[in-house]
Fold:
Amino acid sequence: MNRIIARSCLLIFTLCTLHRLTAQPADTGVRILWNRGGIAGTVEVSNGHLLGLQNAGSKPASGNSFRIAKRQTPELTVRIGGAHCDPGPEPTLITVRTAAQAFSFFLRDVNAQTPVYIPQYGVIVVPQSDTRSYARIEQEIRSRGLSTKRRQIEREPEAAFDPIATRTRNLSVPVWLGLGRDIRIFEITEELQDTPNEDKIIRPMRSSASFDFPQKPGHPVSYRYAVGRGIGALNNIHRWLEEGALPIYHSRMQDDDIVYHTVSFAALERSELTEEHVKGTHYLLSDAYSPGRVFTEAQQQRLEQLRAGMRMPSEEVVLFSRTEICNTGQVPRYAWVKVPTPGAGLPHAFDYRTGFSKLAEDGSVFCVSQWNGRPMYNEELAVLIQPGETAAFDFRLTHLPIPEERAERLRQRSFEQVYAECRAYWNRKLAAAARIRLPEKRFDEMVRAGLLHLDLNTLGEEPSGPLAAKTGVYSPIGTESAPIIQFYCSMGLTELARKSLDYFIDTQQENGQIMNYYGYTIETGAVLWNVGEYFRYTRDAAWIRQNWPQLVKACDFLIRWREQDGPLIRGKVADPEDTYHQFMLNAYGCLGMSRMAETAQALGMPEAGILKAEAETWRQAIRRAAMESLAVSPAVPMGDGTWSPTLPPWTEAPGPRLLYQQRETFRSHGTFTGPDAGLGPIYLVFCEIFGPEEPLSRTVMEYVAEVMCQGNTGFSQPYYGKLNWWQAVRGDVKPFLNTYYTTVSAHADRETYSFWEHFYRLSPHKTHEEAEFLMETRWMLYLERGDTLHLFRTIPRAWLEAGKEIALDDVRSYFGPLNARATGLKEGRLEAVVTCPGDRKPRCVTLRLPHPEGLKPRKVTGGVYLPESESLLIDDFDGEARIILEFD
Structure:
C-alpha cells in the first residue's frame, strides 16, 4: 500500500511539474488606486499583452489610454493576457504613465497582503479581486508599525565603534613596510585569521608584485621565520603600529611565561633614512609590477628602456627586525627562534660564525641575524631565559641578496640608531601635513596612520617626477586615486597632490583619453573632476595653465565621444565587462566637464563658455535618460510596507540588474549588488546630475540602503556606494555614524589599520578604501556646500563629553586654510573657535555642537542657534568666530 501511495504521489508531482513547465501564460488583472482624481495616462505591458482598461463605474476603454475625471473614483482596472508570473527572467511588467509621474511594477509582485504602495506618487496596486479603497489600504499598511532600516536607525542611540564591532567581521590584514616613492616593499603575514601559514611570512615585493631571485629564476622571493613554540590553541598575538600611526610594526606574542615583542621597519642599507636619500622609482616601473595596468605602445617602449637600465642597486632597502624575549615567570623557561629562510625550499646556507644566511647558488647574503648583538649561533635556536631576564633576537633582511662585504657593513649598523632615524623620517612627514586631532583614540590614530599608508604607496622619482598614487596593489586609477589625492589636498600636501595629478597628465593618450587601468573608460571624466577639485583647494593657476592644452584635449575627447555615441556615451566603469550607456560613466564625464568649465571661467580661459554649455547639455541628457529609466524600472518593497521606484545602472537595462529580468549571469566580487549599489545610479547624485535633496536622489539612496545594504553598508567595496557622502551632505547624523562605524569596523584591520579591498580578504593595503574612509572622516568634520562651510556636522555627540576635544589645525578646504577647535562639556558649557585666515572665506559657517545628553542650550553666543540640527549659523562670516553654548 505504501508503495502504491508513494508512486501515486510521484505521478501527481510529475504531472504538476510537467503542467507548470508546459502551461501557457495566464490572464489576470489588477486594480490601480490613486489618492486623487483627475488623472489621465497610458498603460504599457512588457512580456504579456493588454486585454483592457476600465475606470470604476465606466465602460471598458479602448487601446491603452485612460482618463479619470476629478469626480470619478480614482481607480483603474487593468486586465493582462499572456502573463508571465513565475520566478525568473522575462516577467510581465506593467508601466503606468501619467502627466505627474510614471511607474512600473512586476505583475507577479501584486499581492493583497502586501500591496504595491508608492506614497510619493499617491498610488496603490492590488489584485483585481481586492475591493478595498485607497484610504483603507493605506491605513492598514501604516497601522502595522513597520519601519525602514533608516527609520529604525533614527530611533536607536547613536552608533559607536565598540558595540558595532562585536557583530561585524574582524579582518586582519598583512602589514606593508617601505619608504614611500620606492617600489621596494616588504609584506609581513603573521598568523592572521583564516590564513594557512605555518610560520611568519615575509614577502619582498616590487610595488605590489612578487618577483624571482635573480640568481634563481622561477623561485619567487619569500622568507619564513618563527618565534615561540609554535601555532597553538590560544589567540596570543597582539599587533600595533609605532605611536599608533607610523609604519613601524609591533607584534607581541605571549607564549605562557615567555613574551616575544617584535618591532620591524624598513630603512636603507647604509644611508641615513631621510627624504633626500630616498630617490624613488620611476612610476612606469611601479606600474609594471601592478596588476591591471595597460600600456600604450610608446609607454611600453619607455618601460623597456627603464627595465634595461635596472641593475643590482648600490643600496638595498632592508627590513630591520628585533624581537625582545622576556621571561615573565618565576622559573627558567626556554625560548625558541628561527631565522628567516627562503621559501619554496630554495637551497641556502647559514654561517654561524657571521650570522649570515646565504643563497647556495652564488653565496650572496639575504639575511644577517644576531643574538644579543653577536652572530646567531644556529639557524634554529633554543635558549634558557632566567626569570626577569630579556634577550634580543635581531635580523636584517635585504630586499635582494647582497655581496658579503656589504653584509658585513650592514651587520655593524646600530639597530637603535636606524630605529630612531625611521621614527624621525615618518614623523617629519606627519609634521609637514595639517593635523586632525580626535577624542576617540582609534580614529585619531587612523587618520595619521592612513595618511602615511597613502604616502608609503605613492611611488615615483624624487624630487620632481610624477607620482603614482597607487590604489593598493593596483596602479593609479582615475576614480580610485581621486580620494587619495583629495585627502592630500585636505591635509595641505599640495605638492603630493599635484605630482599625483602629473601622473595622469603624463600618461594621457594621443587622442586625449586618460585611461591606464584595464579598460576603465571612466578615467577621463574622473581625472578632470579631480583636477577641478585640486583647483578648488589650491587656486594653483600656474599648474592649470601649464597643463591646459592637455586638459582641453581630454575635454575634446569626451565631446567627440558623445558625438559618436549619441547623447550618452558607452563604456565600462570597473572590472565587469559591461559596456553600456552607464549612468556612472556619464555622470563622471559630465562632472569632469563641469569642473573644467568652472576652472576655465575662474581663469578667464576662452573655452569656458563651450565647456559650460557642453556640460549642461550632457547633464540634461542624463537627467532625461534617468527619468525615463525610472518610469520603466520596477518598484521594490521597503521595510515599512511602502514600495519604491528604482533605477537601473545603465539605460539599456530594464531595471536593477539584481532583479534578473533578463537571462544572464553576472554575480562577481562576492555579491549580486555590485552593478546597482556600487557602480549604479547613486553616481547621479554624487556627480551632481541631481541635487542631494531632489526626489530622485532621495528615492535612489533610500532604496539602495534598504535593499542593497547590510548593516547600513554595501557589499564588496562598500565605499564605492557613496551612501555616507549623501548622509553627510544632508546632515543625517545617526545614519551617517551607523554607516561610518559599520564599514570601518568590518573593512579595516583593527590593530594596524590597513584595509582590504573586499570583505572576502582580497587585495591588502587597499589605499582607495582607506582614502575613502579618510574623506568620510573629513566630511564628518568639515564639508563645503556652495558658499557655506559646515563644521562638525555629523560628529558623535560622545566626542563632546567632558575632558574631550576636537581640533583641526591648518587643514584645507575650498575656502583655504581652516582652524577649528571644539572643547567638551565643562561647567555646563560647550565652546568652539573657528578661523579661516586666507583670502577665500565662506560667506556662512554652520557649526554643530551636540550636547552629550541631547540637551538644548539656554544661552547661545556667537551665532543663531538651529535646534533641529543642534548647530549655530554664523552669517556674513568675517574669518573668525567664537561660539559658546550654555546649558542648565
Remarks:
- Residues 1-24 have pLDDT under 50 and may be disordered.
- The chain has 21 helices and 44 strands.
- The CA atoms of residues 9 and 858 lie 77 Å apart.
